[in-house]
Amino acid sequence: MTTWYEDAFRPGSEIRGKWNGRVYVVERLLGAGSNGVVALVRRGTSRFALKAGRETVDHQSEINSLHALSLTATTFKHFLVEVDDMIVQDREVPFFVMRYIEGVRVSDYIHKHGQDWIYVIGSNLLKKLTELHRCGYVFGDLKIENMIVSKYGHVDLIDFGGMTSKGRAIKQLTEVYDRGFWKAGERVAEESYDLFSFAILMMKVLDVRDRFQNIQHSLPQNREVEQLYPILRDSRAAARIAPFLQRALNGHWQSSEEAYQYWKRLVADQKLTPSPLNFPWLKICFAASLLLFCATVYIYW
Ligand SMILES: Nc1ncnc2c1ncn2[C@@H]1O[C@H](COP(=O)(O)OP(=O)(O)OP(=O)(O)O)[C@@H](O)[C@H]1O
C-alpha cells in the first residue's frame, strides 16, 4: 500500500501551488512525521523545505507561528517563504515553504566531533531560545529531533508546531522533555519550560550509558529529576555543565537571558572550548604556513 504523498513527493516531481502558481521540483523526502511530510525542493537555483500536512488545525497553527516569527527582526526573519495548497489525488493538501536548513542531528554532530562541542551548541541553542522568548513565545516541543546543527556548531530550530504564546497551556510536547512528566512544574508556556527541555536535551546527548532508557520507563510515582543526576557524573563534559543543568531542571531562572548569561560565564570561567584537534583545517593551515616560511627562508638566504 502506498501512502498519500509517495507519488507527489517522488524525486523529480513538480509541486504546483494552486493559488500562487509557483512550481517546486522535489529533490528528496526529508522526513514524514505526525504532522506532515517535509521534502527538499528546488525553485530555480534556490532550495527550500516544503511541508505538506493533512492535519489542517496543527498545520495552520504551525503556519501562524512561522508567519508571526518571520515578521520579527530576528534570525527567524523570512523563515516562512510562502503558503499555498496543492492537489494530491483530487484533494487539496495545504503546504508551506520555508528556509532549508542543511545539517545533522545534534547527537550525530557530537558523536562525530566530540562532546566538547556541547559548550558551543548549548550556547547557540540558548541564544535561539532567548530570541524566541523576547518575541513573546515559548518553543514548547524542544527536543533532539527539532533542531539541526550545521558547521561550527551553528544551531537552527525546526518544527514550530509546538510554539505557544507565553502564559498559555503548552500545546505540543514530547513526554521525556516535559517538566510535567517529571513532576517538576506545570505545562504552561514559560521561559523556564523551554529551559527544562533544554537541560533534558543536553543530558540526552551526553547520556553515554543510556540511563534515560530505564529511568523514563520507571513508575510515574517514582519518577523525579534527581534520578537523572548520575548522567552528570558519567562524562567530563556533563560534569562541567552540571551546575547549569541542575538549575534549569529545578526552575531556577525566570528568563532565558539570565540562563544564557550564566552559561557564558560557566563556559568562560572553565575555558571550555572544543578541542583544536577537531579543527583539521587548522592543522593543515599551520603546516602550509610552516612550509611557506621554510621555502621563503631557503630562497632568500
Ligand atoms: N526547514 C527544514 N530544513 C531542513 N530539514 C527540515 C526542515 N523542516 C523539517 N525538516 C526535516 O523533516 C523532518 C520532519 O519535519 P517536522 O519535524 O517538521 O515534521 P513533523 O510532522 O512535525 O514531525 P514530528 O512528528 O516529529 O513532530 C525533520 O526531522 C527534519 O529532518
UniProtKB/TrEMBL annotation:
**What residues form the membrane-spanning segments?**
281-300
Q: One GO MF term, please? A: kinase activity
Which InterPro entries does the UniProt record give? Kinase-like_dom_sf, Prot_kinase_dom, Protein_kinase_ATP_BS, Ser_Thr_kinase_AGC
E.C. number(s) listed in UniProt = 2.7.11.1
Kindly state which keywords UniProt assigns to this record, in alphabetical order: ATP-binding, Kinase, Membrane, Nucleotide-binding, Serine/threonine-protein kinase, Transferase, Transmembrane, Transmembrane helix
Pfam families documented for this protein: Pkinase
**Residues that bind ATP, according to the entry?**
K51
Q: Which domain of life is it from?
A: Bacteria
The reaction(s) catalysed by this protein are: L-seryl-[protein] + ATP = O-phospho-L-seryl-[protein] + ADP + H(+); L-threonyl-[protein] + ATP = O-phospho-L-threonyl-[protein] + ADP + H(+)
Residue stretches making up the Protein kinase domain: 24-282
Record carries keyword Iron: no
Matching PANTHER family = PROTEIN KINASE DOMAIN-CONTAINING PROTEIN (PTHR24356:SF429), SERINE/THREONINE-PROTEIN KINASE (PTHR24356)
What protein name applies here? non-specific serine/threonine protein kinase
